[in-house]
């Protein structure tokens, strides 16, 4: 009977592919000099939008994330006694578990809400009132809600910090932070003087996909590292930005270019970011179905691929075993990035700084 | 871009309004003399109904709750190693999170059931059998179920304690305890000799709303503090009590009066308790829609408002910033009240007593 | 008012019936000599099927389970800092809570998925991709899924261990382990030389019920203890095994016999195992409704009853207070069995061995 079950089905290896190793985060850690003050001030802030960050805060969060990722077992109690309210009123595995894992790895406890229908919202309670209640129950809130105004409704009453983990078509700032963290982890030398600029392609809709909107905002804090940011889409050029969105990004120094042709761009792209899902109302829509990356795609030899969400047909699994695959590293790094952010938000920064 | 996001959206203050401060719970704590024996005996009891309590047990629980609330960070490990089974077969945010927060604050672990459809009940398992299983899985059960008999079905097999967190239209004893705790926290002098009696108005249906039923029962243990309890309702007077309910309350010494007119009573009410939701079967019903409290209501100058559940239109948010608002303190205090009760039920009372 | 509520409703006893006592697990513990190497190797294995075990591994797991059950409070930190991903895409109370309780009792933290509709599967994410994510989030996965191939899909990417907690109609190995553990706990002398063989009756379908399939596989590792294994079913004899299933069991040394008559067999059965539920697709089916055990059933005087799942009409509650009831002990023991398995899988075996 044992014959039917192959050994390879049973035995697994805990070893990690190279991009998951600690060389990259260690290199990034060395590249950024510690500045604890930038993090300490996060103790009094909600995290709502990528608009709210400056370069130094982002870099210090990346430094702390890379410190966690370089040595995952070193810190496991900074959040001891702290309670996270993990409120996901929209379906999610990845983001919810990424946050919850981050919290647990730091020693905290969690209360989860995973379904609107099981909660008081079913009785018509407002998010402002729920926020008032949350003050009594926990030390931090992570909220995902299909309504754009949800986070601001809740912050109107909160006296504990909240993280926007996706509010409709608006923003998903921690995902964008995790995305940029991956790019710096991949190539820490981008943070040195006169870096060799990179060309990034984004397959997606800046006006419709919260991950893309947030990503462009965080890119605009570091315009000097981008030769060009190419938006690859299947709409008309007039239909992919909300009012003023493009202008703001360009004023901040980003070189934007739009195109409908993915494969023509691929040979010149150092980073290809692909996303095919937009959350609209209570459901999701697929966009850009015609854009597909696979092992036959004319990728630049040392180009990497990022993908922020659950993968669909747009990203073939035959790329998983290639060096282009940094989307796994991206998902892994998101946990450490969130660990860094959460630590600061609940006033435990000083427990993990090198110099106090 | 930062302009779009206002600082006031991002920055929050951890400071609490006055009613949330520690002056009130500290005053209540001083008013009640410790009697640990009253609490120790709770280690062998289920919490099913307000009928089961005597004055001394209630007061000692309030004492412990006020001790917790006076110094929220002092005790954080009494429930270490203990497992709560949080079984909510009816939708809830407030009550579930209030219990779970209480348990986590004391250092315990939790397993949650948040939806009937995800459980063995879907396969037809009886509550008695589920209770038998729970004996093996945890140290305490909190149950919310739409069926009145649910708690007793489960106690038929339980060898660990259970708390009734709402069983259909029957009772919700810990909510009533939290309500009365708020009143004593607001005015600890009610516990001294010859207190100045208060007049309380209850907007709700004693025969139909479990919170009102439980509240009147716990009021009846302290008849000497109530000048009068006015039931404000929109039915006929014959239709708001179950058989014998009114007689029992009056025998216990409560002065009850019924009326259909809220605003006429308000100027004389020290406490107004308002609730518009009744759970019937698997859904809720609204009652008393015509009764509304807002900043224009003719409230007594130093009168306070209590509200046990998710707020609907019956309680205007323009009262939130007024001194009448003790409903936020009520929700906050419920966590500490539940901490007190849970500590006693799992045999950890001696870890938090002043004198051992 | 207190009169309405009887004392017997309120007061409970923490004392346990005899089969729940520690005499049986202690006796089993003494019967098996420790061999830590057999457990240490589990640190590199997924748990998919009963096919994968040998006698020594099973016995050592039973030894560790009986050590836990003999002294439930002795070990409470071996999994400190470890995170379980409890992924139940099919409804379950028992199995989920049994695993989660096991994990919590050993000091670990948990993230739960309790409903397919709340997860990324709703967006079409593959189990292989979910497995890749899980690598980043936790230290161990417990998976229940209605699809047979689900576990293997996930192991294709996992670098942390997974336990199959029921995959469609295929297997449920930890349940079978808990079942056999109960039999050895009931009669440890079965493990001595020349044991008095037992006759076991299984009411159920080996080709359709995952619990029965797994049970027969694990029985086949210990053929010397079974006089006979009688399959009691309401189909035709040709319709209860999948291809090759019967032959494999008989080659391993099991004496199998089939019948449609339960009561005729009962007087000779030392162990009756009854199960009426099969999971098929996204729902369950009932089988063998005509087979019922109750206090009038002609059970052998010292015969015992086992039941692996939520009880339906097939097992009358009037047997609960009889010595035939070992199904409660079976459910209780499953927690300790899972504690043993989980300890080994996350490389903490050495923390609980007698000799290191």
TrEMBL record, chains A, B, C:
Q: Which UniProt keywords apply?
A: Transferase
Tell me yes or no: is Nucleus among this UniProt entry's keywords: no
Q: Does the keyword Nucleotide-binding apply?
A: no
Mention one GO biological process in which this protein takes part, according to its record.
Answer: 'de novo' UMP biosynthetic process
Q: Which residues cross the membrane?
A: none
Task: Enumerate the spans annotated as Aspartate/ornithine carbamoyltransferase carbamoyl-P binding domain.
Answer: 45-183
Q: Which InterPro entries match?
A: Asp/Orn_carbamoyltranf_P-bd (IPR006132), Asp/Orn_carbamoylTrfase (IPR006130), Asp/Orn_carbamoylTrfase_sf (IPR036901), Asp_carbamoyltransf_Asp/Orn-bd (IPR006131)
Naming one, the record's GO cellular component terms include:
cytosol
The record's GO molecular-function terms, alphabetically, read: amino acid binding; carboxyl- or carbamoyltransferase activity
Q: Where is the Aspartate/ornithine carbamoyltransferase Asp/Orn-binding domain?
A: 197-344
Show the PANTHER family listed in the entry: ASPARTATE CARBAMOYLTRANSFERASE, ORNITHINE CARBAMOYLTRANSFERASE, MITOCHONDRIAL
Q: Which family does it belong to?
A: Belongs to the aspartate/ornithine carbamoyltransferase superfamily.
Q: Please report the name of this protein according to its UniProt entry.
A: Aspartate carbamoyltransferase
